[in-house]
């Protein structure tokens, strides 16, 4: 079983690239972020032609998340079930087989002293509350997405540029740790505990050729799935070429047992 998370930074702009990659790599499940389109604008027919089901939570111009799967997606939840922040399309969950799959796009946060940053902290707090009230660590659950948080120094190429920003500071890192403490394992770090690995590179200042990036896209799995984990990697080739997203896909593979 191969599951991928990818912030495509506009699915309409990235559609041809997404189609080509899905056709060649054949992932079983793909969690997408930053669709930047309404549900009616989502390329349902094009994705369906590849043999995939889609669960969509779109929003005009900003945000938007989806789950794409070779298998049917049922029990779909768009946004937090208590209705908090339902104006922002940032979370979608669905059941695929016996797995609960969640695709998330955590707020960026902007400047540290801004309302956007406070919103980010509140969103992460509510996300943890969602896990505690809607899920259990004993169930097979996997949370994929752009968390807009680098977990530690290994996830930051240029520490002096990013330390104490909304993407890397004790408050947001602590909230990511709370998710792990609830019962989740970082799939990339399970298989690459010491490597400097990045998933996002700014379009500006030749960040990708310099490998001046951050690891802010994560696949977090509960113990039943972590025990089945076979490997994880960042698909760097998708950050190359014509019209790439500024994020690379992150892929994790699991035993089918």
Q: Which secondary structure elements does this structure contain, and how are they paired or packed?
A:
Elements: E1 2-7, H1 11-25, E2 29-33, H2 44-49, E3 53-57, E4 65-69, E5 74-78, E6 91-96, E7 99-105, H3 115-134, E8 141-146, H4 159-162, H5 170-183, E9 184-186, H6 187-191, E10 200-201, E11 213-214, E12 217-222, H7 223-226, E13 229-234, E14 250-254
Helix pairs in contact: 3-5
- Please, how many domains? 1
Our measurement of the CA-to-CA distance between the termini, rounded to an integer number of angstroms, reads: 9 Å
CATH fold naming:
Deoxyribonuclease I, Chain A
Mean pLDDT: 97
- The top level CATH class name: Alpha Beta
Unreliable segments of 5+ consecutive residues: none
Number of helical runs? Answer: 7
Number of strands: 14
Biggest β-sheet description: 6 strands, mixed
- Category from helices, strands and their pairing: alpha+beta
Major sheet strand order: 3-4-2-1-14-13
As a percent range, the share of strand residues is 25-35%
CATH architecture: 4-Layer Sandwich
Rg over CA atoms, rounded to whole Å, is 17 Å
CATH superfamily, by name, is Endonuclease/exonuclease/phosphatase
- The SSE order reads EHEHEEEEEHEHHEHEEEHEE
- What portion of residues is helical? 25-40%
Shape by Cα distribution:
globular
């Amino acid at each position: 079983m191969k599951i991928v998370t990818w912030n495509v930074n506009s699915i309409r702009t990235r559609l041809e690239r997404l189609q080509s990659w899905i056709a060649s790599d054949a992932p079983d499940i793909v969690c997408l972020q930053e669709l930047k389109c309404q549900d009616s604008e989502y390329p349902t027919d094009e994705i369906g032609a590849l043999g995939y089901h889609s669960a969509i939570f779109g929003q005009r111009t900003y945000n938007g998340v989806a789950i794409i799967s070779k298998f049917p997606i049922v029990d779909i939840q768009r946004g937090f079930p208590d209705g908090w922040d339902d104006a922002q399309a940032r979370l979608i969950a669905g059941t695929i087989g016996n797995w609960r799959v969640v695709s998330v796009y955590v707020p960026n946060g902007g400047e540290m002293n801004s309302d956007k940053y406070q919103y980010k902290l509140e969103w992460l707090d509510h996300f943890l509350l969602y896990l505690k009230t809607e899920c259990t660590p004993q169930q097979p659950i996997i949370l994929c997405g752009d968390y807009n948080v680098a977990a530690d120094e290994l996830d930051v190429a240029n520490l002096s540029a990013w330390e104490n920003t909304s993407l890397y500071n004790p408050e947001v890192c602590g909230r990511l740790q709370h998710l792990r403490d609830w019962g989740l394992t970082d799939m990339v770090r399970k298989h690459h505990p010491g490597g400097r690995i990045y998933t996002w590179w700014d379009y500006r200042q030749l960040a990708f050729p310099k490998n001046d990036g951050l690891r802010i896209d994560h696949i977090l799995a509960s113990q039943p799935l972590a025990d089945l984990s076979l490997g994880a990697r960042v698909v760097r080739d998708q950050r190359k070429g014509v019209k790439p997203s500024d994020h690379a896909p992150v892929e994790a593979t699991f035993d089918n047992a």
